[in-house]
Amino acid sequence: xxxxxxxxxxxxxxxxxxxxxxxxxxxxxxxxxxxxxxxxxxxxxxxxxxxxxxxxxxxxxxxxxxxxxxxxxxxxxxxxxxxxxxxxxxxxxxxxxxxxxxxxxxxxxxxxxxxxxxxxxxxxxxxxxxxxxxxxxxxxxxxxxxxxxxxxxxxxxxxxxxxxxxxxxxxxxxxxxxxxxxxxxxxxxxxxxxxxxxxxxxxxxxxxxxxxxxxxxxxxxxxxxxxxxxxxxxxxxxxxxxxxxxxxxxxxxxxxxxxxxxxxxxxxxxxxxxxxxxxxxxxxxxxxxxxxxxxxxxxxxxxxxxxxxxxxxxxxxxxxxxxxxxxxxxxxxxxxxxxxxxxxxxxxxxxxxxxxxxxxxxxxxxxxxxxxxxxxxxxxxxxxxxxxxxxxxxxxxxxxxxxxxxxxxxxxxxxxxxxxxxxxxxxxxxxxxxxxxxxxxxxxxxxxxxxxxxxxxxxxxxxxxxxxxxxxxxxxxxxxxxxxxxxxxxxxxxxxxxxxxxxxxxxxxxxxxxxxxxxxxxxxxxxxxxxxxxxxxxxxxxxxxxxxxxxxxxxxxxxxxxxxxxxxxxxxxxxxxxxxxxxxxxxxxxxxxxxxxxxxxxxxxxxxxxxxxxxxxxxxxxxxxxxxxxxxxxxxxxxxxxxxxxxxxxxxxxxxxxxxxxxxxxxxxxxxxxxxxxxxxxxxxxxxxxxxxxxxxxxxxxxxxxxxxxxxxxxxxxxxxxxxxxxxxxxxxxxxxxxxxxxxxxxxxxxxxxxxxxxxxxxxxxxxxxxxxxxxxxxxxxxxxxxxxxxxxxxxxxxxxxxxxxxxxxxxxxxxxxxxxxxxxxxxxxxxxxxxxxxxxxxxxxxxxxxxxxxxxxxxxxxxxxxxxxxxxxxxxxxxxxxxxxxxxxxxxxxxxxxx
Length: 900
What we know:
Blueprint: H1 2-20, H2 33-40, H3 55-58, E1 63-70, E2 77-84, E3 87-91, E4 94-105, E5 108-118, E6 123-127, E7 129-130, E8 137-138, E9 142-145, E10 151-152, E11 155-159, E12 164-168, E13 171-174, E14 177-180, E15 183-186, E16 192-200, E17 209-218, E18 222-225, E19 228-232, E20 235-241, E21 244-247, E22 255-257, E23 260-264, E24 268-278, E25 284-293, E26 298-308, E27 312-323, E28 333-344, E29 352-361, H4 365-368, H5 370-373, H6 377-381, E30 384-394, E31 402-412, E32 417-432, E33 451-466, H7 473-478, E34 481-496, E35 500-521, E36 527-548, E37 551-556, E38 562-578, E39 589-593, E40 604-608, E41 623-638, E42 650-665, E43 676-684, E44 689-698, E45 700-709, E46 712-723, E47 732-744, H8 746-749, H9 767-778, E48 790-802, E49 807-820, E50 825-834, E51 839-840, E52 845-852, E53 855-862, E54 869-876, E55 885-890
Antiparallel strand pairs: 1-2, 2-4, 3-4, 4-5, 5-6, 5-9, 6-11, 7-8, 9-10, 10-13, 11-12, 12-15, 13-14, 14-16, 15-16, 16-17, 17-18, 17-19, 18-21, 19-20, 22-24, 23-24, 24-25, 25-26, 26-27, 27-28, 28-29, 29-30, 30-31, 31-32, 32-33, 33-34, 34-35, 35-36, 36-38, 37-38, 38-41, 39-40, 41-42, 42-43, ...
């Protein structure tokens, strides 16, 4: 196995060297110019007379000649128009045109360095010329008819009446396809016979690769070929087909997808990704593929792609697989997956939106389907799947009413549970001022600043149901919860005492439920919870009022680079009130008592009939206290550099945000002060380095005690109602987090002014560009940007937790990026390092890319861990010939067979 892998890699390297050395030792397929001219010039006088170099000729004055001919019996007469920049010579019925010659007839156009026009036989012969300095063949004939693409050739003979002709070494482009080399005999304006032409997607004069069609018929939309074979760097490859057809049209073309052969160590030999591509229209296509393994396993995948430039775009993928990784006769593991992505052009239907992002399936799909997932480490290691389909509608009018309806899905792949919301809707009206007048021209009075809004949310939800029970009828009839929540916010904002902002609000919330719960103790004193159908409603409210202002501090410097430092503080203090919704005075709170039986004591419990419901009902005891928060920011102003022509001071953030907050509850009987939380954020290097931190402080003293459990002494901590500052100590740090992220590339250190994008956008791209974009979205490795020489992304994360008796922390660094070794070689990498234990994560991968002009060489390597594997692929860049590739891989599912 090691020998085979080594042989394959050596073959890949050899092929890369051959392709990268393109042009150095090429066996050209072009025929000599003289030979082509002799074979195609049918006029007896093959030696053209030399034009006399008059003064007009030396001045590059264009000479023109016209001739009138009939298109056919009974047809109107049409004029042949011929011009030449150098000279024009007449010999009987033959006209010789020299130097940028051009002939047009009806819808036919011909440009060449030399054209011979036989008026009597209606023949045109054209060729290029040899540059005396470079000895290169230049100014080749270019012919064009009707709306077809232009064709360049070494030489041609064409009868402009019968539409018949011959071309040698033609070269034409149609979308991503190139047809070059060989000979073409034009039979009429719809068909042509071809011989030894090359069908390729490489734009070089001598293409790096191509399919050589020895004989065939070229029609308007396709080439029907006889024997054809693959040629790479002029070397024929012993891979051929007896017959076939090749599309050459602007619309989508249906066709068979050629499979690949190989062996999986656990599933056996396979025929992978054979199927059919169906071009439904210019806006949609369907690709259906399948894979079959010799042990009976199989996979099926269908992908629908659709795109309308000014309306929408999206793709829908359905996958199903049955695999047997065990012994013969074991049951198959059956998996499925569905993905759907849809986006709408916001200008297509103003006022309404529709979007979809669906990713759902069995939890084992990513691990069991090697052909569809490949080596996408993110897919293999993901723990959750999420989906969302939403529709939104906005109306003009009072309050700008807005409606949003959505379906959502969340799947825990580890616990194998699914949460569904089918559907959730939200209807809202923006806040309005009911006491204000539309015709008011004076300052608003205080009551005219009162605002009121409305919001209602409805939900049907199934929470954490096992995958195996998802499609059972009892799941939707007994486990689905539903309800409505209405919210009415009323607010007032005033400026008082010139520098203070006064805000007060009343928020009323009312929940409507269509089921509740009832608890009771059974005879064996086991707790039983019943679901009670029926409509229930409950309301709750909160009140708040507070003041906020801004305080500015400025420190200036007379010399040096630093001009000033500005400090902005934003204190906010408010009072809030909430009733005690845990009291038994409310009818939704209940109490139950167990039967008194010896030797078991009586058990007492309080609960709410809305526990574990969608909105959980009113929660918590009475609150009447002060909220306090303080926001800070620090900004520096720097003097301009001496070489700065604008002489404009620069502003640099030192600290963008530092916040402190806490709450003091006067209504509580103890522990009235809540934990003190803090957070901060700042950025440097033009926002390329971002730093975020936060944490929590416990203001109370903590007492540590010992207990004995299982014959072991265990320590536990409990807070006591005494502040730490009473004992002369600072609050204890209970949690802290710090993260820093940086993206380093040439733009980090040499930023350029913001430039508005020029060119195509998602709303204006054509179908061909949309097809390429869809390919990149489905396979990100299909696009590698060599224009960025290097890019490094660093993400550092540190967390600390202290529960007094013990502490814990994490310290990790994630590194990813890419670097250009040369203009054609790029290396990508990603890894995670646990700095606490000094260990590299198994989720480490390396990718190497080699740009081979019209080919791509991609190598991906996961060196260690459960997902260790490698993948080497040499493929054509063009989306049309994506199946033309050579690959070697070792799946992570066969680690015991892995040989590095």
